[in-house]
Amino acid sequence: MGELLLSLRRLLRREASHLIVVLDEVDHMLRRSGDDLLYQLLRIDEDQEGKGTMSLILISQEQVLDVLETAVISRMGASNHIKLQPYSVEGLEAIALQRAELGLVPGTWTPEIIRLIAEKAGLTGDARRAIELLNAAVERCEFRQDGHNEPYIIVEDIHEPSNASIATSGSNLEAIDDLNTHAMLVLLAMCRRLTNQETMTTGDVEQLYAVVCEEYDVKMKSHTTVWKYLKDFETRQLTVSRVATIGGGRGRTTHLSMPHFLPKDLASRLEMLLKKQFR
Q1: Quick check: 158 and 237 in contact, CB under 8 A?
Q2: C-alpha dist (Å) from residue 212 to 56, 98, 155, 194, 209
Q3: I need a labelling partner for 32 at 20 to 30 A (CA). Which of 54, 138, 181, 222 fits?
Q4: Three-state DSSP class for residue 20
Q5: What is the pLDDT of residue 91?
Q6: Is residue 83 in a domain?
Q7: DSSP code at position 176
């Protein structure tokens, strides 16, 4: 390593260049071999009388200041520390959209699917997660092609393959078991629409809730009560809401999606629970 650093120093002197070194995931290197390499890199231009020839950028998902030696922190400057916040859903959407535009055949994806992927990755704010979800969705879409299926990414493609017994065997789907009867009916109405569609409006919810109430022969709850159910679903992370302006600036509408659960799995469990209640 000493020989390599010496060669690097000679190169910088000869070319009169300024080198920017970026070390990504530096926490792995520090755990494996300590910070001696960082110290040597920081000393590479110490005889230049204040004229720096190298800038060092460290990137880590973990806090590393606590494991660096005092000499390294002193040379880097403890205040030269920038904490980057996780990506917003909008940021993740832009990243996934860029990948889709560059790598996918036009017509095999929609902006609504990209938004759903971004919302699914939004809990972590991790760009890699969004890209992995897009890649996995593409692979599932390709895998199910037999000449009869949809030749584009659908809602089901962005979720992990479900176990056939998931509705009865118990899982994170149990988060809905304590909902009251009408909350279940509202959620069932949403699941039936979101099985084949990426988003729906609050107006859609009330219309479909009316259909489900007729199916189960019960009287609908009020608009205010339905709105409370929708807010509770979002608190439980069953759904995600987004307010958008209607074309022409004529008003605003709320769009609802279900990025964290496969709607048909929730629907199966809801139908099972409701069947017990309406015996």
Answers
A1: no
A2: 61, 39, 22, 15, 5
A3: 54
A4: strand
A5: 97
A6: no
A7: G
Average predicted confidence (pLDDT) for the chain: 87
Domain that holds residue 247: 166-277
272 in the same domain as 191: yes
In a domain, 227, yes or no: yes
- Same domain flag for 264 and 176: yes
pLDDT score of 165 = 37
Based on the structure, what is the number of domains in the chain? Answer: 3
Report residue 269 as tokens.
């469990």
pTM (whole model) above 0.90: no
**Do 67 and 96 reside in the same domain of the chain?**
no
DSSP string, 214-260: HHHT-PPPPHHHHHHHHHHHHHTTS-EEEEEEPGGG--EEEEEE--S
pLDDT of residue 49: 61
Whether 40 is in a domain gets the answer: yes
Does a structural domain hold residue 82? no
